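Hi L.,

As promised, Large ribosomal subunit protein uL22:
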Amino acid sequence: MTPEVKAYLRYIRTSPRRMRLLVDLVRGKRVVRALDNLAVLHQKQAANLTKLLLSAIANAKHNHSYKKEDLVVKSIMVDGGPMIKRWMPKAHGRATPVRERTAHVSLVLVNMPRKEKTTTKK
């Protein structure tokens, strides 16, 4: 069993629901393919997810000497972080609470070398 590579991104100023839409595009793919998919997207949090993937790749190279081409996203999870509580002024001197959500993302990569294609002569 090869060791897994982990990386975390915490306290992101976006809702977990919004972040899960991007995470679903990356889950189960090879890292190179996932980076290509994220580079095309125009969402603000795609840049944060790209940084997380690049950090995990750096961890894999430094700690285990894995190649970038052999890494696969084994699991990626988005959890809710603490809420930032603010107040929104309203009519007649009132104020209502605003809960700004944050997210935590945890990423696990695994090394899966590609198998060489064997061709047979006819």
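The helical segments are 16-26, 31-40, 45-64.

Thanks again for sending the construct details.

K.
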